[in-house]
Design goal:
Elements: H1 2-11, H2 13-17, H3 23-46, E1 65-69, H4 84-94, E2 105-107, H5 125-132, E3 139-143, H6 153-170, E4 175-179, H7 190-206, E5 209-211, H8 223-226, H9 236-250
Parallel strand pairs: 1-2, 1-3, 3-4, 4-5
Helix pairs in contact: 1-3, 4-9, 5-6, 6-7
Length: 253
Amino acid sequence: MGDMRILERLSEAPRLLLGRPRRLLAGLLATAALATALTACTAAQGDGLTMAPVPMEATAPAADVVVIGDSLSTGLMTSPADAWPTLIQNKLSSSTPAKSAPRSLYNAAENGAGYIAQGSAGDTFGDEVRRAVTNGSKEVLFFGSDNDLGDNPDDIARAAASALAQAHAQAPKATLIVVGPPSYSETPDSALTAIRDALQSASKQEGARFVDPITEDWIAPQAAQLLADDGEHPSVAGHQLLASKMETLLGIA
């Protein structure tokens, strides 16, 4: 209905312009063009199509590896110095890696974030991608997130596919690795496996490598030693284990 009213106003332009500035016609034409574009966009969405992501200029320092994640990657309940991304960065800084191996890492993880869930600073994983992934990024590693528990798995899959597509747009040559949320029980909750399945589907769609910590039993068999006192976040030993797992995935170990 809004588009029809705009076009009706446009048809009245010659009469309205009598004695009025020319900028009125320019404004009407611009409004009509915008309405046409919005109508086309709506039609495309109705057909199941999505607009291509637009590369954004990252505000974070350029790094070979970018970590996209939540509080499992920030050191919450231990310290940032204990967090597995910091352990990997320390290793890269203190050694001479192979020529093809990454040499720097930037941790964009934010407490509380997920593909849909907004973190402590209001960011989702997609927002983390936009501010941290650069054209020179070689590997982008996504980890998590059970912060999306309660959201529709289809919505999670769409949000994950969008974040991965954005990473491809900003770093066309980068390898994308998606590590799903871990389970702390050997009988994982069905809502958690639904997130896992949604991320696996999105990864396949966007050509990313998917890794499943649930099936691979990263945490559950040793949860008492690998989790901090809250039972939700990695302990110092847990971060050390995660660093070892992630190093293997990144070709650093």
